[in-house]
Amino acid sequence: MKVAVDAMGGDHAPQAIVEGAMQAAKKQDLDEVILVGDQVLIERELAKHRWSGSNLTIVHTPRAVQMHELPSRVLRAKHDTSISVAMDLMKDGKCDAVVTAGNSGAAMAVSMWKMKKLEGVERPALAGIHPTLNGASVIIDAGGNVDCKPIHLVQFAIMGEIYARFVFGKKRPKVGLLSNGREDSKGNELTKKVHAILKKSSLNYFGNVEGTDIASGIVDVIVCDGFVGNVAIKSSEGIADSMTAMLRAATRKSLWARIGYFFMRQVQENIRRRIDYSEYGGVPLLGINGTCFICHGHSSAKAIKNAIRAASEYVGGDINRLLIDALRESQDLKRFGMETASRIWTQPKGKVMN
User: Fold this and answer.
1) Whole-angstrom Cα distance, residue 188 to residue 190?
2) What is the mean pLDDT of the chain?
């Protein structure tokens, strides 16, 4: 198992990236962790930690993709960046997976350009893990595709269900479609068409779910376009950070509050771990002919370590083969959607189809 890491991608690169790679190389059953980036900077970080292991190597490239750069420009003019070279390693069979905390748009564009899509995939999607009252759920798409067609969301549902089986160990994960109400009549044109198609699928389809259901754990997979998914995840992260800050501020106002906080510290720590994105590390780009995990831009060393672990487990679970097998059903659903779904939702108001 070999994992290439974009050492120059992220707000805290290369310090946090190199440290996380070292932690992964020490604790996990990996043949090699390949740090891709500026060799001088990487070696400087390794020296700080007095690294002496043999399963961590460096592939030098002097350039990095900045967070503000357009993916199209990276594809046209930046073939020697750390993310591009890391993808080349995977394309050439020199590593099994790539992990990056850099520009997510560029990472998606480069991975699709170099690795291509899996057979039958219309669009790859990011599968984010979101904490819930019952554990966690998969939100797909978490930001990869802001404008979608019905077949895209149908395939997201299929790919998300396969990934949920793997990460949650469930045989029949429950799938929900994010909408503005649970009723069949709720939603925009896109979600109404997708709802009609998913009802005909073999998925364990719950139906529409609302924003309040995201954290409840009522379903294992929440399907939406990337615009909605990204807003939902970042809103949740913002609320969690705000609640933590408000709780800390409240404990400073009285002695009894500080005493109560002291006795609740273990509970607080357990909750913090459940909502901490670094526990999951990164999210996979489902649908490419390879393995790419994309991490938060301000990922810590812990997040990078866990992303490397998650990427290696993904490869070991042969998830891409499972995705290819499952997506064969989506071709029949695509035909159903083209022939029937649009007709269902363009009926005159008040008229119900049998």
Assistant:
1) 5
2) 86
